[in-house]
Design brief:
The protein is an all-beta fold and 64 residues long. It has one domain (6-62): SH3 type barrels (Roll), CATH 2.30.30. Helices cover 0% and strands 41% of the residues. This is YwbE.
C-alpha cells in the first residue's frame, strides 16, 4: 500500500514517510503513526502524519 488513502492508515501503524526536508531526495524515515494530519480521504503525494517521535511527513509506504 502506498499511503495515499486515509482509510489505509491507522494510529499505531508502522510506516515510512518522506519528511519535508527530504522531498527532493525521496529519503524515507521509518516510524509509528501517532496522529493523522490530512483530513481528506485521498492525497496524491501521501497522507500527512505525525510519527511517535514527533516528525511530520507524508506516508510513502505502509510496512506490513
Amino acid at each position: 500500500m502506498n499511503g495515499q488513502n486515509r482509510a489505509d492508515i491507522k494510529i499505531g501503524l508502522a510506516v515510512e514517510i518522506v519528511l519535508k526536508a527530504d522531498q527532493r531526495t525521496g529519503k524515507l524515515t521509518k516510524g509509528i503513526v501517532a496522529e493523522i494530519l490530512t483530513s481528506s480521504s485521498f492525497h496524491p503525494h501521501g497522507i500527512k502524519v505525525r510519527l511517535a517521535d514527533g516528525q511530520v511527513g507524508r506516508v510513502a509506504k505502509i510496512i506490513d
